């Protein structure tokens, strides 16, 4: 009879996730994770075929973490829903730098299972509120996302540190300019 595993698959994922949150995705190794578990690497490779399988689970957990993070920001009702979604993206970059980099700043070349992280909600919001086509709404959202991603990457990398009032004001200005442009098209 094989020995009872010391750690469950989920426990290993959770500990690895916490490690990535603190140290970054690229820093995760089986040896470092085994040290955190106070064991050999055997339990890791008993639960997972290889480190790639574990890393995919970490990405999946991070995607779900971000989706919840965004929903929580929207629930605060501090900003209109669309703006709250963008502010959540920026706040996530500032507060969860390593997780942001994992989701939005890693090389995606060759990935076939890239998730959209539920941007369809944003497209539907724009379509409904600006009374424009889905195609125009998608174009609008991409322009807005470029601005938000600029803020987010500057905060995630420590290049710039703006307060959220300034970010909110600038995003409102950009939103209104894009809205005027979309209605004139």
Word description of this protein:
By secondary structure, this protein is an all-alpha fold. It has nine helices and no strands. It has helices at residues 9-23, 30-37, 42-47, 51-76, 81-95, 97-104, 120-130, 134-156, 164-184. α4 crosses α5 (81-95). The longest helix has 26 residues, at 51-76. The radius of gyration is 20 Å and the shape is elongated. The mean pLDDT is 90.
Radius of gyration: 20 Å
Q: Ends: how far apart? A: 70 Å
Q: Low-confidence runs (pLDDT<50, min 5 residues)?
A: none
Bin the helical content. over 70%
Strand content: under 5%
Helix-strand blueprint:
Layout: H1 9-23, H2 30-37, H3 42-47, H4 51-76, H5 81-95, H6 97-104, H7 120-130, H8 134-156, H9 164-184
Keywords, separated by commas or semicolons:
single chain, 185 residues, mainly alpha, 72% helix, elongated
How would you concisely characterize the structure shown here?
72% of the residues lie in helices and 0% in strands. It is mostly helical and 185 residues long. Helix 5 runs parallel beside helix 8 and helix 8 (134-156) packs antiparallel against helix 9.
């Amino acid at each position: 009879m094989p020995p009872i595993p010391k750690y469950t698959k989920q426990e290993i994922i959770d500990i690895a996730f916490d490690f990535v949150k603190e140290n970054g995705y690229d820093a995760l190794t089986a040896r470092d994770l085994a040290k955190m578990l106070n064991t050999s690497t055997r339990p890791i490779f008993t639960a997972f075929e290889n480190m790639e399988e574990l890393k995919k689970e970490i990405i999946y957990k991070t995607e779900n973490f971000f989706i919840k993070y965004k929903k929580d920001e929207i629930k605060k009702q501090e900003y209109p829903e669309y703006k709250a979604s963008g502010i959540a993206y920026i706040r996530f970059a500032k507060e969860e730098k390593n997780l942001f980099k994992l989701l939005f700043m890693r090389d995606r070349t060759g990935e076939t299972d890239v998730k959209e992280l539920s941007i369809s909600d944003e497209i539907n919001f724009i379509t409904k509120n600006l009374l424009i086509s889905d195609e125009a709404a998608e174009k609008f959202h991409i322009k807005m996302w470029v601005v938000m991603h600029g803020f987010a990457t500057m905060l995630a990398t420590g290049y710039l540190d703006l307060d959220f009032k300034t970010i909110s004001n600038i995003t409102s200005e950009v939103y209104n300019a894009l809205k005027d442009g979309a209605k004139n098209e």
